[in-house]
């Protein structure tokens, strides 16, 4: 393995493939730093042909922070920080079908997520990511001023209550700034998403619905996106603070399966 990783962007705005590293082996400090730099620069990065086991998956995540427990669903047997991501002929829904940032309903939403898929359909099952810095940057100066200072409710009840098998599980509902400052890059980005956000707290119901409709449509425009075609043992590592993603469930009744860890984050800072 070379000390300098090869980073190939997928698009001008978001996404890059990383070559020259074996994630089943211990990582050098230099490789950890280069992976982190690539994530900060491209918001989501991809690796191919990495047949990692659960321990290697956890170790990879821990290079970038503490692992976070999923607040909505339980982890797999023996590995509480790993959740299964799975769709097949018996599925009634799959994770992440609507645009979202993982667990934005948490008081301290995760910094990042690492998804490793071992089984993918022959066709379909892609994931899309969108760049929330670019979505913010593209707003008019007056709209930027208007949005700063507003907060939105991110509600985990509406997503996880219907599917949880644990009636006593406490599901998070949190308020976060609509425009946040990324703690590393210091860039401003939008932080609302169709899956968790129910309202903008400072607006009337009608005003909130209209502004959110505009923001969701705006952030989901194709010009801010990349689309990733999975192969068996591909890995995606994304920054939840400045991206949203959507898993396309167009492969029913075929099987798509793997595991995800999330890395703990901070309370979002208002712009
Ligand atoms: C998710 O983490 O939201 C699932 C993403 C995917 O299955 O591609």
Distinctive features:
271 residues; three-stranded antiparallel beta sheet; 6 helices; binds succinic acid
**SSE class:** alpha+beta
CA distance, first residue to last residue: 41 Å
Q: Catalogue the unreliable spans.
A: none
What is the mean pLDDT? 97
Rg from Cα: 18 Å
How much of the polypeptide forms β-strand, as a percent range? 25-35%
Please summarize the sheet with the most strands: 8 strands, mixed
Polypeptide structure, described:
With 271 residues, the chain is of the alpha+beta class. The chain contains six helices and 17 strands. It has helices at 29-42, 54-62, 132-137, 141-147, 157-160, 205-219; strands spanning 6-9, 16-19, 44-47, 67-68, 82-87, 112-119, 127-131, 151-155, 173-177, 179-181, 188-190, 197-200, 225-228, 234-239, 243-247, 256-263, 269-270. The strands form four sheets. Strands 1, 2, 3, 4, 5, 6, 14 and 16 form an eight-stranded mixed beta sheet that branches. Bound molecules: succinic acid (SIN). Succinic acid binds next to strand 6 and strand 15.
Draw up the topology in text.
Blueprint: E1 6-9, E2 16-19, H1 29-42, E3 44-47, H2 54-62, E4 67-68, E5 82-87, E6 112-119, E7 127-131, H3 132-137, H4 141-147, E8 151-155, H5 157-160, E9 173-177, E10 179-181, E11 188-190, E12 197-200, H6 205-219, E13 225-228, E14 234-239, E15 243-247, E16 256-263, E17 269-270
Parallel strand pairs: 2-3
Antiparallel strand pairs: 1-2, 3-14, 4-16, 5-16, 6-14, 6-16, 7-13, 7-15, 8-9, 8-12, 10-11, 10-17
The chain binds succinic acid.
Residues 85, 95-96, 102, 113, 115, 127, 245, 247, 260 line the site of succinic acid.
